[in-house]
Amino acid sequence: MPSVTVALLRPRTAVRSGRSGTPHPQEAPCEPAGAPPTSSPTETAGTLCSVTARSCGRTTRSRTWARGTTVRWTRNWTSARRWWIARRRDVPVRLHCLQGMAERDLVQELHGTTPLRLLARTGLLDTRLLVPHGIVTDRHPDVHGEDRGDLAALAAAGVSVIHCPQTSLRYGQVLHSFDAYRRAGINLCLGTDSFPPDLIRGMDTGVHLAKVVDGRLDAAPAEHYVEAATLGGARALRRTDLGRLEPGAQADLVAFRLDDIRDGVQDDPVRTFLLNGTARQATHSVVAGRPVMTDGRIPGTDLPNLRRRAQTLFETMRAAYGERDLRRRGAGELFPPTFPPYEETSR
């Protein structure tokens, strides 16, 4: 059996929910125009209600909803229907947003408000909202560069922000800042959002970016990122039995090797692992007491076949990516080779 020296906890379910809260001040949720949503009667509490960036359109009229709440009718009620489903079934909503300035500018142009206020207007802030990214708030240097209440609004609504350090860095973005969000009372979780699905690399990236943003070496200690990766996800799901090892909790854990010469000398095992290791050093994982990975292998899983299928899906997506590009560039221009392909020439 390999030497296992570091064991970290992880939520059994991917981070997918926030906590309930209240809408942004002076904003009311909007309501589906007409009949209740056409969802399956078999959906139950715990189902994730995932929405896209589409939101409510122009307000046409208002009426009083149950419990005396004044809500608005809209022409485009996609987000309103999600709000209605989420509130009725007590399910979380996940929405990738507050991610970039292009999003903020577009929302301002179409709706005359900020993305955060639009979330409040549609009622989505009151749905245990889970927000992957959550970067572009008033603290962002391209907005105001200072806190003017956005973090307090997110915290008051019980929003869980899914921090994705590696993805943000690839787009030249960073959270402003991990410590500021944490001190504001926002529940921070961790996500990958892309390949590699490696939270260890993500934590290492996040710890160092936080130092740069806040100009302090202690801006984001390793233990704060480990907490976001474990207890932050559990809090988002409202699951006190996840993210920890204690009587009554789920037996969810993952163990890593830390005995390779390339890991270097050991200071604190967790800190050393985050600095020098990757998730590929995982040797064992257990979900609700059931072994999933043993000695670095996942029994019953054809990993080479999964990789082939994933590559086929990616190539199909890449070929069609030009349809999403505003300039309608082709795949060759959007995904150029790092170096020109080698071509053998005859002498």
Concise structural overview:
The chain has 347 residues and is of the alpha/beta class.
Tags for this model:
five-stranded parallel β-sheet, alpha/beta, about 30% helix, four-stranded antiparallel β-sheet, TIM Barrel, 2 domains, about 350 residues
Number of helices: 11
Rounded to the nearest angstrom, the distance between the terminal CA atoms is 56 Å
CATH topology of the largest domain: TIM Barrel
Average pLDDT confidence is 79
Report the C-alpha radius of gyration, rounded.
Answer: 22 Å
DSSP summary, beta strand count? 12
Class by SSE composition: alpha/beta
User: Could you give the order of strands across the largest sheet?
Assistant: 3-6-7-8-9
Low-confidence stretches: 1-76
The succession of helices and strands, N to C, reads EEEEEHEHHEHEHHEHHEHEEHH
- The percentage of residues in β strands lies in 5-15%
Write the CATH architecture name of the largest domain.
Alpha-Beta Barrel
Class of the largest domain, according to the CATH hierarchy?
Answer: Alpha Beta
Rough outline? globular
Portion of residues within helices: 25-40%
Describe, in plain words, how this protein is organized in 3D:
α7 crosses α8. The strands form three sheets. Strands 3-6-7-8-9 form a five-stranded parallel β-sheet. The chain has a four-stranded antiparallel β-sheet with strand order 1-10-11-12. Strands 2-5-4 form a three-stranded mixed β-sheet. It is globular and about 60 Å long. The protein has 347 residues and is of the alpha/beta class. It has two domains: 288 residues, TIM Barrel; 30 residues, no CATH class.
